[in-house]
Amino acid sequence: MAEPSGSQRLSLYKLGSPPWKEAFRQGCLERMRKSRERLLNKYRQAGGNMMPGRAQNTLLVQEVMEEEWNALQSMEGCPEALAQLEEPTDLAVLEEIQQELIEQEQSIICEYEKSLQFDEKCLSIILSEWEANSLICPVCTKYNLRITSGVVICQCGLYIPSHSPELTEQKLRAWLEASVNEHSAHCPHTPVFSVTEGTEEKSSLLMSCLACDTWAVII
């Protein structure tokens, strides 16, 4: 990430008075919280590769600090408030705020990584259960599916009329695994399954993912 210009650094370093320190700190922390999606997009674009805890490797800290300072400067009553600012005597004030933002940025990224690991674990469990002898219902992930003359039934209430009399557990298992693997090739999140309530048309089994906004018809 590009280093801020000398004038930008000097502007930031003029934040010397204690009231401004706290206002600036709280504003930066809140701005970072609200910029979670922007931060994660930058993290994904960087390929998830960065050395944690180093200022030169942060993704959004400097932007957040500069944006908050600009917001404070444009605040109503700013001319009177600016008179309170002093020349910098202790850069530790800004370094302290910067380090706090670095820790918050890392916390957001760690939380995101943990959610990905949880999704991967859930996906692995689903696939391993499908590979067992009995075909687990993808909607409730609790009971076994039964297929008779192409009709798909589950104890949870799932009922899909026959789309094809030749449908078997082996065929449905293969379609489910292929759809899940195709999805996981471009999205790390776990898809969900649901059944459309057919009126004129027969009910269908759908796979969808809110994270990447995709869906697919399984049967």
Task: Please give a structural write-up.
With 219 residues, this protein is mainly α. The chain has helices spanning 6-13, 18-34, 36-45, 61-73, 78-82, 92-130, 169-184; strands spanning 145-148, 151-154, 159-160, 192-195, 205-209, 214-217. Helix 2 (18-34) runs parallel beside helix 6 (92-130). The longest helix is centred in the middle third of the chain and has 39 residues, at 92-130.
Helix content: 40-55%
Mean pLDDT: 77
Helix and strand succession?
HHHHHHEEEHEEE
Beta strands, count: 6
Give the strand line-up of the largest sheet.
1-2-3
- Low-pLDDT windows of residues: 1-10, 13-18, 79-90
Roughly what fraction of the amino acids lie in strands? Answer: 5-15%
Structural category is: mainly alpha
Shape call: elongated
Q: Kindly, what is the distance between the CA atoms of the first and last residues, rounded to a whole number of angstroms?
A: 48 Å
**Rg over C-alpha atoms, rounded to the nearest angstrom:** 27 Å
Major β-sheet, in short? 3 strands, antiparallel
Give the helix tally: 7
Summary of the model, kept short:
By secondary structure, this protein is mainly α.
List the helices and strands and how they pair.
Elements: H1 6-13, H2 18-34, H3 36-45, H4 61-73, H5 78-82, H6 92-130, E1 145-148, E2 151-154, E3 159-160, H7 169-184, E4 192-195, E5 205-209, E6 214-217
Antiparallel strand pairs: 1-2, 2-3, 4-5, 5-6
Helix pairs in contact: 2-4, 2-6, 3-6
